[in-house]
Amino acid sequence: MILAGGSKSTISEGREEIPKPMVEIGEKPLLWHIMKQYSHFGYEDFLVCGGFKVNVIKNYFRDYYIYQSDITVDLATNQVDIHKKVTENWKVTVADTGLFATTGQRVSEAEKYIEDDWFLVTYGDCLSNINMKELVDFAIKKDKMITMAVALPTGRNVVLPIEEDDILGNVCNLSGVINESWTNACTFVFKKDVFRYLNGNYELDEQLLPVLSQKGEIAVYKHHGFWCPVETRRDKVDLENRWNAGVAPWKVW
Fold it and tell me: Which domains, from first to last, does the chain contain?
């Protein structure tokens, strides 16, 4: 499940307003980069929770093979020929979860598409080289309601109270500053039972995580590798430079 329904991007160089996960790095949307990472580890069934201009996301995946391939268009007949069709072995569901929904509401709205007892959740504006297979194996071993991947902070992220047994300590408000060295990497493994905690107007970070941390129901997976939220134009330029130089650390495929 990819949460891609936030407000419009303020870092895109184009004039047209687009959802933030559709901001391009190396002429590919952030969504594409995230999905390539997941599919590398064998996860190819995606649920994209859209909101702002969700049709931009729908149209991208509807015409995905056209974007990836050479085409010939006969303007007189409107016939389109696809040459060397290039695509991915992905199944993608794009759900309109509402323009002003909270992150918790988006997850809750998508419950009808979830069949497995465990599912991955990630924000659509972060790139990393987290080993998703190891993360899922760790989550199943810990058997908590939520397993949260954490990473070393980039310098402007909230740090978390991680206890020695890889359990998130009791927190009242994740917006506070705590003297530890890990931050939420916006990638989770949820047990399906989590939906019974999502009946309200919940933000995942500000409400659900503190509630479950009080119950000792959040395990923590420490990721020592690359992780970067794409929050500013500086972030975008830095990631684009890495991609163009062939040294993008999130490119695990």
Answer: 2-241 (3.90.550.10)
